[in-house]
Amino acid sequence: MRATTAVRTWGADVLAGWNRFWFEASDPATLGMIRICAGAMLFYTHLVWSLDLTAFVGPDGWLPSQSVEMLQQGTYAWSYLWWIEDSPALLWTAHIAALVVFALLTVGLWTRVTSILALVAALAYVERLTGALFGLDQINVMLALYLAIGPSGDAFSLDRWLKGRKAGAPPPVRHSWTANLAIRLIQIHMCVIYLFAGMAKLTGPAWWDGTALWMAFGNMEYQSLDMTWMAYYPLLINVMTHVTVFWELSYSALVWPRLTRPVVLLLAIPLHMGIAICLGMITFGLAMLIGNMAFLSPEFVRGLWPWNTIPGQGRAGESQSSAAASGQPVGTKATRPPIRSSGAKR
């Protein structure tokens, strides 16, 4: 009987921890900050196509329809650009409309609609431009998906400002389980990305002998900053190579505990900024750092906006729970938020 009771208690605790992890109502501050950064990245990376739009997505461009269709055989790929590529006028109209949508998402105007439209537009470009993509585009679409799932316009947005202006006072922060769900999905996705990146590196001998980073630094094709001087410091290259692999493999375990999380996130900065500065992948490095922002607590994020206040609570976020969006592991005790959405259950 005691064993049965213990098992039931354990099962109930696990289920409660699972529900807290995914469905605890959360302050949308972290999601709002990610919306600003990811929206700006979506806008910039698609603005670049404007330099020669028809050369990329036109019927006779560098990526003709027939070639892309051959690459996508056996897969499901959809893009509204297929329907209008024969008309430069329609193509430019759709392109400008997409840029407007990305800009509206960034500032948080009509966010519930523009977040979905931004996802559709980003997917349309990805599916049409197969062959001219890399990790940046995948991270862009991943972030756009989760911004469409959560209430990304509930913090640091024109939507919220307009509500306050209409009411004559700043609206209270609306905690919701969907804000937590969106953040959790980004967190899990980032863990999967780093885990598989680290495991893939283990298949390459250069990551075992510590010379992999030298191959990157010495590759003139990607070099935006001359790092060949590191050839005189092979031990430093070895250390940096092994630290990179260890960080990626351990990320999914060490980013959750509050003790090790700051170290893991701080190491992400030199790793990705090093890629950005030394290898010229600035946008990719920044996009990965935007994904890492999902592990910042709402209190920390609101602390970056000292002028943002909540009626009756003083400075925004002082009394709010950080468990729902700060990466608190399943099964640990979470502080109950003072404001909860009507449909959220503990």
Q: How far from one another are the termini?
A: 28 Å
How would you write the strand order of the largest sheet?
A: 1-2
Radius of gyration: 23 Å
Q: Could you list the spans in which at least 5 consecutive residues all have pLDDT below 50?
A: 310-346
Oligomer: single chain
Approximate helicity band: 55-70%
Order of helices and strands: HHHHHHHHHHHHHHHHEE
Strand content: under 5%
Give me the number of helical elements: 16
Let me know the average pLDDT: 87
Strand count: 2
The main pleated sheet reads as: 2 strands, antiparallel
Overall geometry comes to globular
Structural class: mainly alpha
Q: What secondary-structure arrangement, pairings included, does this model have?
A:
Elements lengths: L1 H22 L5 H19 L5 H5 L7 H7 L9 H4 L3 H20 L3 H18 L6 H15 L8 H10 L9 H25 L3 H5 L2 H6 L16 H21 L6 H19 L2 H11 L5 H6 L5 E2 L3 E2 L31
Antiparallel strand pairs: 1-2
Q: Key terms for this structure?
A:
346 residues; mainly alpha; two-stranded antiparallel ribbon; disordered C terminus
Q: How would you explain this protein's 3D organization?
A:
This protein has 346 residues and is mostly helical. The protein has a domain at 19-188. It is 62% helix and 1% strand. It has 16 helices and two strands. It has helices at residues 2-23, 29-47, 53-57, 65-71, 81-84, 88-107, 111-128, 135-149, 158-167, 177-201, 205-209, 212-217, 234-254, 261-279, 282-292, 298-303; strands at 309-310, 314-315. Strands 1-2 form a two-stranded antiparallel ribbon. A hairpin with a 3-residue loop joins strand 1 and strand 2 (314-315). The longest helix is centred in the middle third of the chain and has 25 residues, at 177-201. Residues 310-346 have low confidence and may be disordered.
